[in-house]
Amino acid sequence: MAGIPGLLLLLLLMLLLLLCAVGQVSPSGTHWKPTWPAYCLPVILPQSTLHLAKPDFGAEAKLEVSSSCGPQCHKGTPLPTYEEVKQYLSYETLYANGSRTETQVGIYVLGSGGSESSGKSRRKRQIYGYDSRFSIFGKDFLLNYPFSTSVKLSTGCTGTLVSEKHVLTAAHCIHDGKTYVKGTQKLRVGFLKPKVKEGRGANSSSAAGPEKMKFQWIRVKRTHVPKGWIKGNANDIGMDYDYALLELKKLHKRKFMKIGVSPPAKQLPGGRIHFSGYDNDRLGNLVYRFCDVKDETYDLLYQQCDAQPGASGSGVYVRMWKKQQQKWERKIIGIFSGHQWVDMNGSPQDFNVAVRITPLKYAQICYWIKGNYLDCREG
Question: How far does the signal peptide extend, from start to end residue (predicted)?
Fold first, then answer.
């Protein structure tokens, strides 16, 4: 394979992933259920690790990412070469003591017989007509799945629990593409819990309104950010890699939501996505919303879910049928990134954008979580 040009090798890799997809049930059937596709997933493994100098943590935290490159712009972007993809999926790890490393990766496709390498300023808006967001109140909702999987970052964004000690969020919540934002070295993750008042029993209720909640904070042990984000920016390939994984210093003991490969928009139940986040115009409230997907590229979902800064980093999820276990299951298929203003044929168009979890990103994020590619064979 060494003699095959990088672009051809990448095309072969993507073709194999498409051919391996099974379980793509057509919605034209009378008894159709939106079913999770099964994929022959690639493997992403560390090849070498380099120690880097400590960062200065000087960037200002931004709660959203803006880009003028819309769906057609992204669709027209040249396909990256195999070597470029390896660079984008290599990653930087930041530790609580301020040290950091850069890890180069290899991409492989495992088969039955072995392995193969494989300018204008405009007023932005994120509320579209009638505000369709729902604030979630009361511990009976906030502390129960799936709302309990949403957590708040001390930098102001939202994250989602994806394992006993891992949180998935947007890369821009901790890194501006050049350096880490202020407060990242002492990054904390907040879990909503009821306030306990003196002299009141655990089962007592207040006639004054919903029970007050507060955040319990857990420190972050280390973070992973793909080099595709660090080397890029919001106007080119960078937005495709706006995701990061946080590892907590201790277990959180809550139910978490698994990640999954993003199906095509036409296979999503009703063509809709869901996510919950801590929008900064409703301080202290967890805000839930759902909406239709308007357009998509290989790496991004374009939608008009009502959202405000602070919701960035929320896990975008759908509920689909899991054929093997014969049950419905929610999985995170993307990460809410932010707002885009797009000039489409001279007509203004707003989008909110989510980064899709592709087979390659699934393999990477799963390896960060599991530490063993054998546990990442089902997407």
Answer: 1-23
pLDDT tens-digit readout, 71-110: 888 888 888 899 999 999 999 999 999 999 999 999 998 7
CA distances from 44 to 85, 90, 240, 359, 362 (A): 11, 9, 18, 10, 10
Rounded Cα distance between 155 and 189, Å, is 9
pLDDT in tens, 125-182: 455 445 555 666 666 677 788 989 999 999 999 999 999 999 999 999 999 999 999 9
Q: Is 318 helix (H, G, I), strand (E, B) or coil?
A: strand
Contacts of 287 (CB under 8 A, 6+ apart): 133, 134, 135, 136, 276, 277, 278, 279, 311
Judge whether residue 116 has pLDDT over 60.
no
In sequence order, what E strands does 39-187 have?
42-52, 91-95, 100-111, 114-117, 134-136, 150-153, 158-161, 166-169
- Cis status, amide bond into 264, omega within 30 of 0: no
Q: Residue 310 in contact with residue 278, Cβ under 8 Å?
A: yes
Read off the amino acid at residue 328. W
Ramachandran class of 284: left when φ > 0, alpha when ψ lies in -120 to 50, beta otherwise: left
In degrees and rounded to multiples of 5, residue 309 shows phi and psi of -50, 145
Give the model's confidence band at 308: pLDDT under 50 very low, under 70 low, under 90 confident, else very high.
Answer: confident
Reading the block at residue 101, the tokens are: 């490393």
Question: What is the C-alpha to C-alpha distance for residues 279 and 282, in angstroms, rounded to an integer?
Answer: 6
d(CA 311, CA 156): 9
Strand partners, 111: 114
Any idea which residues carry the catalytic annotation?
A: 172, 236, 312
